[in-house]
Design a protein that fits this description.
Number of strands: 17
Radius of gyration: 25 Å
Structural class: alpha/beta
CATH topology of the largest domain: TIM Barrel
Number of domains: 5
CATH class of the largest domain: Alpha Beta
Largest sheet: 7 strands, parallel
């Protein structure tokens, strides 16, 4: 499974960060950054390779392969543990603060004893940071604003993709246990929340003790926290707690509804049961006068139906009106992964941050049965990764040559433009109109006042060549807050100009968020769910974008890339025709 690749890549990234914080040689730091990138970009599963086979892979050497084997066999890398012991625990979380590099973090620690987000906040409140490590008033102001918007509640939570990969692996293994008839991840994983506290797994089986022992003895488990007849809690190699519950097959539906949550959704459904003289818990929907009289329990659909409710998709169960909609027949027909006809934001190694060749990316997109795929490598104003006009012309010719290789998939030559401080874009208008499709994104000057940030995005929207605003808030979950925008104004401008707003499917972004998607949909905006893929495996991230769109009640008609090729191109043509 790909989870090993992802976990190893993350740990090599942690090693690089900790080496920086320790003032290590930059070449050594860069070696681990390259190793993290190499592992993340692999198309093979490291769990299936020997140490020697791993060492033979491009970008992986003997020392790196040994650490991969160490993590695979023991769930840890000794070097990483030693590095963690050498720095205060809060140092790593300080790296998440925009503007704080390793040297600055060290200086703040040496001069002021700042070793965590809390101590940084205290120092800012006391106004003792100015002048330290060259930090001027503007830097301090930016730092204060970033801290105010940094998702503190998510500090101890796990990104959705990491939790879901582990949940999928556990469910796969538990389905093989004798006597098991059904296995589902429940809780916030099933609701596809952005971050996860712990994982709930529900199993239907006739022999609970066999299932519990299968989990406790798994090589993914490092500690058994609690073991009972109905519930087992363990700590996994990835630091996530897993709570396993086993129920009788005839109770599975009620239990799945109960343990999926959310708590507020469950309260709303139970209130409806009480008004009908019923009780609802994890064992079933039963008569309040005699709990032996079970009305429904085997399936979620049966429980909802017994309460005169349509089945509510898990991604909608947040008590935001879904129970009322299920009662009156107005639940949205939420967009599904199978509705997606193409991907409109993807990169290749033509730009500096792409990890796969153009052909590799196109092959992967074609394998998904897409009707179209937009190649949107970075434009020239992104100095580190952008393509000059000459390179873009060369790429356009290459795409024309490659089109014959993909007779059922239209390759769109596009670019990801940079939105300047004043809303300006890369290249001149004639050159921009030569693209089939463009995404425009903010890549710099994040900490600007709301009015200025909003105005620059709206100005970019007004250009006839701009089809989508990429990752509209610029957030990176748990690492960087989104910049301050007036979303309602941007939604209105998107409708007026015929510009789509992206739901960036990368789990580090999920931008727009589910809540923002709903506001966009209610405002009449068109969405584009895109992977922003930089490597082949990233094309599998579409599931997270779709789930985020579902959480915002988006339907297929709200999403640009559910349209067929003609419909999508008509959207592009309509904007160019209506823009002066």
């Amino acid at each position: 499974m790909s989870w090993l690749n992802d976990e190893v890549a993350r740990r090599f990234g942690e090693i690089a960060t900790l080496l920086k914080l320790n003032g290590a040689d930059p070449f050594r730091v860069r070696a681990y950054e390259r190793a993290a990138g190499a592992v993340a970009g692999l198309s093979v599963d490291l769990a299936e390779l020997s140490e020697s086979e791993t060492a033979a892979l491009s970008g992986i050497g003997k020392a790196t392969a040994a650490k991969i084997a160490e993590f695979r066999d023991h769930g840890r890398i000794a070097m990483l543990e030693e590095l963690k012991a050498d720095v205060p625990p809060g140092f790593v979380e300080l790296v998440r603060v925009p503007g704080l590099g390793p040297k600055t973090i060290r200086a703040l620690y040496d001069q002021l004893g700042i070793d965590s987000l809390d101590s940084l906040r205290a120092a800012l409140d006391a106004d003792t940071i100015k002048g330290v490590a060259g930090l001027g008033p503007k830097s301090v102001t930016n730092m204060r604003e970033a801290l105010e918007r940094l998702g503190a509640k998510d500090d101890q939570r796990t990104p959705l993709d990491q939790a879901l990969e582990l949940a999928d692996e556990l469910c796969l293994r538990l389905r093989e246990v004798s006597g098991v008839t059904r296995v589902e991840a429940a809780g916030s994983v099933r609701r596809m929340r952005e971050t996860i506290g712990d994982i709930d797994v529900l199993v239907a089986a006739t022999e609970p003790t066999v299932v519990m022992e299968a989990l406790r003895s798994s090589d993914l488990v490092v500690k058994v926290i609690a073991a009972g007849d109905k519930k087992t809690s363990v700590l996994t190699t990835r630091g996530l707690q897993v709570d396993l519950r086993v129920v009788a097959p005839e109770q599975f539906g009620a239990a799945l509804l109960y343990f999926t949550g959310s708590k507020d959704h469950n309260v709303r459904v139970r209130e409806r049961a009480v008004r009908r003289g019923l009780t609802l818990n994890e064992y079933g929907l039963a008569s309040r006068d005699d709990d032996a009289v079970v009305v429904a329990a085997a399936t979620e659909e049966a429980v909802y139906a017994a309460l005169d409710l349509a089945w509510v998709p898990p991604t909608l169960r947040e008590d935001t009106g879904e129970v009322e909609a299920a009662a009156n027949g107005t639940l949205p027909h939420a967009v599904q992964l199978t509705d997606i006809r193409g991907d409109l934001h993807g990169h290749s190694d033509w730009s500096g941050d792409g990890k796969a060749t153009l052909v590799q990316m196109l092959d992967a997109a074609a394998a998904k049965g897409y009707a179209y795929y937009a190649v949107t490598d970075h434009a020239e104003n992104l100095s580190m990764n952008g393509l000059s006009r000459e390179r873009m012309v060369a790429q356009r010719e290459e795409i024309r040559r490659l089109q014959e290789r993909y007779p059922t998939m239209r390759i769109l030559h596009g670019t990801e433009l940079n939105i300047g401080v004043d809303g300006g874009l890369d290249y001149d208008e004639d050159f921009l109109l030569g693209y089939d499709f463009t995404v425009a994104s903010v890549h710099s000057h994040f900490p600007r006042p709301q009015a200025e940030q909003t105005a620059r995005i709206i100005t970019a929207m007004q250009h006839p060549a701009v089809n989508v605003i990429g990752h509209p808030t610029g957030r990176k979950i748990g690492r960087r807050p989104g910049y301050d925008i007036d979303l309602d104004a941007i939604v209105a401008a998107a409708v007026e100009t015929g510009t789509a707003l992206e739901v960036n499917a990368h789990p580090a972004r999920l931008d727009l968020s589910g809540e923002m998607v709903r506001r966009a949909v209610e405002g009449g905006a068109t969405l584009a769910i895109s992977c922003d893929a930089h490597r082949v495996r990233d094309l599998d991230l579409m599931r997270y974008g779709v789930a985020t769109a579902q959480r915002g009640w988006a339907q297929p008609g709200d999403v640009l890339n559910t349209r067929d090729l003609d419909g999508m191109l008509a959207f592009v043509a309509a904007k160019r025709a209506r823009t002066p």
